[in-house]
């Protein structure tokens, strides 16, 4: 079992503007991190307008001497205040991790990560984190979490009719049932990346996958039992890799269509030790959303206790209609953001 811990991406604001003005795609540094995250193998370009509820979890370091934003997991918007994701993305076993999560934001309307995550109207600060008391960070049982946002998501950005809809039943539990997996993560394993190229995606990807019976799934993991609260998927082999998820997509949704409506069946949790392995059937394991609807409802109703509450103020730049300064570098950060926003709008105008 692989916990997909190596896909935190750092997007440097100065680098994004400087390189962006030279018409290069983006600047990032890939570092080892504590977040558990999977990605899309053999995926196609996805339109965010088809999945308006899709969010990208970030850590905002725009108040630092080298302003940057870190991306690490996905999530889906339940309503204007709450985002559904995976518990392993937010589990804090140390004070250092809790302090880092004080910078947690969720970004929406992200067509191009390297520019859109710097648009303040796309980003919403977190105020509270919830996950079940029974969550196990070793086995990943009950790997589900909810983020409460400090301010409601603007209805002009995501209308209420566009919030994610959760699976009303388990009718998908049948052989070869079709799903769609979406995410912002890697597009190939690290071993497949040649010198001078990258396996990081700067856009949302989607891929078609199918349901895999639990017994077939469990046989792929020597020391892991698949519970009735988890869903396994497989995918076709293309380009010598089996289609599915891996590093960069944790917390994101597994979707299916019924009656012309898309529903979320699962939350990306973990996968095999080598993403895209063609020699085994299973590609990703998901927390089954249907089994946690009572817990989700209790969080939304205010009857659950938060695992972490963020402080009311910080030194980050404005996000989600919050007002606040940018620290000693606030004026410089704001200037760079204005340049980046100007560039983004100019590029959109000529499309």
UniProtKB/TrEMBL annotation:
Gene3D superfamilies hit by this protein: Trypsin-like serine proteases
Domain Peptidase S1: 40-301
Pfam families membership: Trypsin
Keyword match Hydrolase: yes
Domain of life: Bacteria
Keyword annotations: Disulfide bond, Hydrolase, Protease, Serine protease
Cited SMART domains: Tryp_SPc (SM00020)
Family matches, as InterPro entries: CLIP_Serine_Protease (IPR051333), GlyGly_CTERM (IPR020008), Peptidase_S1_PA (IPR009003), Peptidase_S1_PA_chymotrypsin (IPR043504), Peptidase_S1A (IPR001314), Trypsin_dom (IPR001254), TRYPSIN_HIS (IPR018114), TRYPSIN_SER (IPR033116)
Keyword Zinc-finger: no
One BP annotation, GO: proteolysis
Transmembrane segments: none
GO molecular-function terms, A-Z: serine-type endopeptidase activity
Protein name: Serine protease
């Amino acid at each position: 079992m692989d916990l997909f811990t190596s896909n935190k991406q750092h997007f440097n604001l100065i680098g994004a503007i400087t390189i962006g003005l030279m018409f290069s795609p983006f600047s990032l540094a890939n570092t080892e991190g504590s977040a558990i995250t999977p990605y899309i193998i053999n995926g196609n370009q996805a339109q965010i307008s088809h999945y308006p509820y899709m969010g990208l979890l970030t850590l905002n370091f725009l108040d630092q001497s080298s302003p940057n934003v870190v991306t690490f997991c996905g999530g889906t918007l339940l309503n204007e205040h709450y985002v559904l994701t995976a518990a392993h993305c937010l589990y804090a076993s140390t004070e250092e991790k809790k302090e880092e999560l004080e910078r947690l934001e969720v970004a929406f309307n992200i067509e191009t990560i390297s520019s859109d995550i710097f648009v303040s109207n796309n980003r919403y600060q977190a105020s509270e984190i919830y996950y079940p008391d029974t969550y196990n960070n070793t086995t990943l049982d009950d790997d589900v979490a909810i983020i409460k946002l400090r301010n409601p998501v603007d209805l002009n950005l995501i209308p209420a009719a566009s919030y994610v809809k959760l699976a009303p039943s388990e009718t998908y539990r049948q052989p070869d049932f079709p799903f769609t997996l979406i995410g912002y993560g890697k597009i190939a394993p690290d071993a497949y990346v040649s010198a001078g190229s990258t396996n990081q995606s700067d856009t949302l990807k989607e891929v078609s996958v199918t349901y895999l019976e639990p017994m077939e799934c469990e046989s792929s993991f020597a020391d892991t039992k698949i519970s009735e609260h988890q869903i396994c998927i497989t995918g076709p082999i293309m380009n010598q890799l089996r289609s599915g998820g891996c590093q960069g997509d944790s917390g994101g949704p597994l979707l299916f269509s019924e009656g012309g409506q898309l529903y979320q069946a699962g939350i990306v949790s973990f996968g095999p030790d080598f993403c895209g392995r063609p020699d085994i059937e299973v590609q990703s394991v998901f927390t089954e959303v249907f089994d946690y609807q009572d817990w989700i409802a209790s969080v939304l109703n205010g009857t659950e206790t938060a695992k972490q509450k963020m402080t009311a103020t910080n030194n980050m730049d404005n996000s989600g209609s919050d007002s606040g300064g940018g620290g000693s570098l606030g004026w410089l950060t704001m200037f760079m953001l204005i340049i980046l926003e100007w560039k983004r709008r100019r590029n959109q105008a000529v499309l």
